[in-house]
Write the structure tokens for this entry.
Amino acid sequence: MSALATLSELLPDARRHHRAVPGFDCVSDIYIRAILETAQEERSPVILMALGRDLAGRGITYIAGLVHAVASCYDIPIVLHLDHATDLPSVCRAIDHGFSSVMFDGSAMPYGQNVDLSGRVVQLARPHGVSVEAELGCVAGSDLGGQRCGQTVLTQPGEVVGFVKATGVDALAVSIGTEHGVYAAAPQLDIERLRAIDAASPVPLVLHGGSGTPESQVRAAILNGIAKFNVYADCRLALNAGFAEARERAQRRADELPDIVFQPLYEALSAQVRAKIRLAGSGAPAPCGLAAEGALPPHS
């Protein structure tokens, strides 16, 4: 298998320099290709995340296998991260398939149970060199079916030191006012709370619900300790916008070539990824000779 990076290798440096590494949930090859090609152009590390919904059946073999197969083609750090696991078998399965990082989400559990299971995940992951993210507090919002779920519980700064010490996690997702899914109204992040959490936390912090959060608030969060921020809904919105042009192209001829049909989807995803990388400040000026912005790279 190819050598992938971990959160513990990337996030401390990002935190020190008041940058963040964006994490993008990916569900298929077009997501993976758009994310990696764009990150390469931007000279940015990137976190490819996958949810249980997309790893069911052989999904985990396809996604993990593709990432490992192509990672050596890029000279940027790439993390393959299990997102929002809520049970130990899912964590073990991801480790077995070569994920370099896992997130255990015990945010809906009582504090003691969250500590216990997050610590057990660390014990499972550490011998394999796999980093672990956990969540303290609860980021609510919409589930993948678009239904409201959970109740937001803001992270208490006074619980951070004890939680990290008891679990040994490498990164901590915090609740400061974001939500998963598409916002009905713009959020107002509790930056003062975040400052207190950052001052207490021995590990880098993670912002879930990064989609739709006003850029000024994302920047403020990054300046005050957020070293990883997650994006999924904004990429789904971009992909769906790209479908309109894709449908138009498919109507021009009955057997339109797939790369022509897929191009608007790729371009929409790439534009969103590029915007988030630049918002995070994780990239660098692209060297000469890389692909033009938004262009689907040719098949080798």
Observations:
- Residues 7-232 form a domain with the TIM Barrel fold (CATH 3.20.20.70).
- Residues 181-185, 286-300 have pLDDT under 50 and may be disordered.
